[in-house]
Write a structure and sequence with these properties.
The structure is a single chain. The protein is mostly helical and 204 residues long. The chain is 75% helix and 0% strand. It is built from nine helices and no strands.
Length: 204
């Protein structure tokens, strides 16, 4: 019902607002992906979902035009769209660092080629030119050391994991169980998509 949907959005909104105050934009985006996927898989009517999508897009535009997001947060979300010439003209140290990290990650993945440099043999990752390679930029390690084949295999394993989660959700006889499975799947899917896209310069 509409009432239960409103309660759901309020319950989801409380941790989102608290995390925004930290601020931790990445975790907020993960929460939003989880909530959106669970609403889509619930028994909410299509027109209500369409209305929510319009409200969500409006809120997103408003967020970018308000003071809620600091300028550096907005810049980090858009710096990947800049051309090489625009990147060369950056004078904000924070933006330069973000652009540098992404560039080093792409160089590392390119160095891997088809077959990779070999485990622990990557020049970019071995010399610590790629920052936070055990967390944020871990896909660049896979790309350099395992190459295209190894990175593709890794993504294939993730795809298998996600497919099994989807099967569990579809076969669930209870709506609550289905939504839990979908929520976990959405958490994995969003973070895999965002992390690999970021490492390849296709996502913020």
């Amino acid at each position: 019902t509409i009432g239960r949907l409103v309660v759901t959005l309020v319950l989801a909104g409380v941790p989102v607002m608290l995390i925004l105050l930290q601020p931790d934009m990445g975790t907020v985006l993960v929460y939003m992906a989880i909530v959106a996927a669970m609403i889509l898989m619930s028994e909410v009517k299509g027109r209500v979902i369409a209305l929510l999508a319009i409200v969500g897009l409006t809120a997103l535009v408003g967020l970018f035009q308000s003071d809620v997001l600091a300028q550096y947060q907005q810049d980090r979300l858009t710096v990947f769209l800049l051309s090489d010439d625009q990147l060369a003209e950056l004078d904000d140290p924070n933006l330069v660092r973000v652009a540098y990290n992404a560039e080093q990650s792409q160089i590392a993945i390119g160095n891997g080629g088809i077959s990779g440099a070999g485990l622990f043999e990557g020049t970019q990752t071995g010399s610590d030119l790629v920052p936070f390679q055990e967390t944020d930029w871990i896909f660049s390690v896979a790309g350099e050391e395992l190459g295209f084949r190894g990175a593709a295999l890794l993504l294939g394993v993730y795809a298998l994991l996600l497919f099994r989660m989807w099967r569990i959700a579809v076969r669930a006889t209870d709506l609550f169980d289905r939504l839990i499975a979908v929520g976990v799947m959405a958490m994995f899917l969003f973070q895999i998509f965002q992390s690999t896209g970021m490492a390849m310069g296709m996502m913020p």
